[in-house]
Specification:
By secondary structure, the chain is an all-alpha fold. It has helices at about 1-15, 25-55, 60-75, 80-85, 95-130, 130-135, 140-160, 160-165, 185-220, 230-275, 280-300, 300-310, 315-330, 335-345; strands at about 165-170, 175. The protein has one domain (about 20-220, about 240-315): Rhodopsin 7-helix transmembrane proteins (Rhopdopsin 7-helix transmembrane proteins, Up-down Bundle). The chain has 14 helices and two strands; from the N terminus they run ααααααααββαααααα.
């Protein structure tokens, strides 16, 4: 009798222990997306302005950074729709075509950022490890061709999102699926798994290999002949710039892309198994769903980190700002003081 009572209690406990709501996303996602929209729009607009109007000498890195900034900016303009949607507790008022476009631009930004960061990393790797060959391998024209190839790859690979994304009415609200409807989930799982391997795992492995070889090269002693201290300072600045770029790109992959893909893969896998073994993976589905929703703002945060790759690791921005300050200071001096300063110089 006691055994039957205990088993009944355990059954009731297992039935209700994993029932909890995800209402936290109606607060987390609007706040996080609002922060990304405000700061991301400001930083990317500044980077876009400087690259477009203030950069005098374009390099392959400038071409890649321009495309990366455009990619981030297009996504940032979709955030007000998502902010309104999640603040209104998953009630989508904009229609199914807009839902498809919003989801498409999210994944286009995600994998476009990954591929352009990989192109920047490969470009810097060739310049450091193969400096002689880089003179003929790296050019603005080739960077433009690579950028066109990246956009073609991203747009073609993410085109199925326009088919999978759709809306459905639940109760009084209209849901805009960030995956797809239940009837197409198995097909979407196969598609998403292939895209994750091709457009995240392989580029991530490429970046890690490049950076490992770059670090080994940067740790080698510097041999300078005929240049003395000036040559040493130039080599030191090059090393500093490369180290900054390594830190920023690795931080973007580790902080933004890796957690999102891990939690999303777990959530999709447990959701697939739920259809086969519902009671065994019930709690795992809920736990992975929460983790996935928590890491979604991290994936959007790459739009905040990417501009720092230009501001911190690039030299053109600092030269532009320094030139503007010097010009403003010179213009602010009286005419006699300006003349005296010019004579003194």
């Amino acid at each position: 009798m006691n055994f039957s009572n205990q088993s009944a209690v355990l059954n009731v406990t297992s039935l209700y222990s994993c029932r909890f709501k995800e209402d936290f996303k109606y607060l987390l996602l609007p706040i996080s997306y609002s922060l990304v929209f405000f700061f991301g729009l400001s930083l990317n607009a500044m980077a876009l302005f400087i690259i477009t109007f203030r950069t005098k000498r374009w390099t392959p890195s400038t071409v890649y950074m321009l495309n990366l900034t455009v990619c981030d900016t297009l996504y940032i303009f979709t955030l007000p729709f998502l902010i309104y949607y999640y603040a209104d507790a998953n009630d989508w008022p904009f229609g199914e075509p807009i839902c498809k476009i919003i989801r498409f631009l999210f994944y286009a930004n995600l994998y476009g950022s990954i591929l352009f960061l990989s192109a920047i990393s490969l470009h810097r790797f060739i310049g450091i490890c193969y400096p002689v060959h880089s003179l003929s391998w790296l050019s603005v024209k080739r960077a433009k061709l690579v950028s066109v190839g990246v956009w073609a790859c991203v747009l073609s690979c993410q085109a199925p999102v326009l088919y999978f994304s759709r809306t459905r009415r639940y109760g009084k609200g209209l849901v805009c699926f960030d995956t797809t409807g239940p009837e197409l989930f198995d097909d979407f799982l196969v598609y998403s798994s292939v895209i994750s391997v091709v457009m995240f795992v392989l580029p991530f492995m490429l970046v890690m290999v490049c950076y490992g070889l770059m670090v080994r090269k940067l740790l080698e002693p510097i041999w300078v002949s005929g240049e003395g201290q000036q040559g040493l300072r130039a080599a030191h600045r090059t090393k500093q710039k490369s180290v900054k770029m390594i830190i920023i790109v690795l931080m973007t992959f580790m902080f933004c892309f890796l957690p999102f893909h891990l939690t999303r893969s777990l959530y999709y896998s447990f959701r697939y198994l739920r259809n086969r073994h519902p009671e065994q993976v019930k709690c795992l589905v809920l736990a992975s769903s929460i983790a996935y929703k928590v890491t979604r703002p991290l994936a959007s945060a790459n739009s905040l980190i990417d501009p720092f790759l230009f501001f911190m690791a690039g030299q053109d921005f600092r030269k532009t700002m320094k030139g503007k300050k010097q010009k403003k200071a010179a213009n602010g001096l009286p005419e006699c003081a300006n003349t005296a300063l010019t004579t003194s110089l």
